């Protein structure tokens, strides 16, 4: 994984911060205070992402060799490996709006150089997303429209 800095890959969700330090995933309250070591696999980890609800955390780890996606519940601390892809390009990239884990990997493709986006569920089920080869990906919710249904452009309101 990436080295050279002590605190890496920060991510915020609600009132919790997660980051990587000393090759482990850590969590801390946003308002400050003590950080807690969340993983201790004695293997490099990267790209931790807290779920939108702030109750789960997914990350990339190499505990079993190649990078794979892991998931844990913040309350219990129990973690599980979700992927068995064996691909060096595997990375956790966040969460989907419906609570799935967003990951990228070249697994299952015709070319090892083509990385695809996947949606993982809590049980490890994977669905390749229809975006074609990607280098990276982030999915955000669409902005809400006003109650009146109009859009604002250049300081004036337009009707749909």
Task: Sum this structure up briefly.
This protein has a single domain, classed as Tricorn protease N-terminal domain (Neuraminidase, 6 Propeller), CATH 2.120.10.60. The chain contains no helices and 14 strands. 26% of the residues are buried.
Which terms summarize this structure?
mainly beta, Neuraminidase, globular, single chain, 4-stranded antiparallel sheet, 160 residues, 0% helix, 41% strand, disordered C terminus
Describe this structure as you would to a colleague.
This protein has one domain (about 10-160): Tricorn protease N-terminal domain (Neuraminidase), CATH 2.120.10.60. The chain has about 160 residues and is mainly beta. It is built from no helices and 14 strands. The termini are far apart. The strands form four sheets. Strands 1-2-3-4 form a four-stranded antiparallel β-sheet, with no helix packed on it. It has a four-stranded antiparallel β-sheet with strand order 5-6-7-8, with no helix packed on it. A four-stranded antiparallel β-sheet has the order 9-10-11-12, with no helix packed on it. Residues about 150-160 have low confidence and may be disordered. Keywords: Cytoplasm, Hydrolase, Protease, Serine protease. This is Peptidase S41. Belongs to the peptidase S41B family. It holds the Pfam family Tricorn_N. It is found in: Cytoplasm.
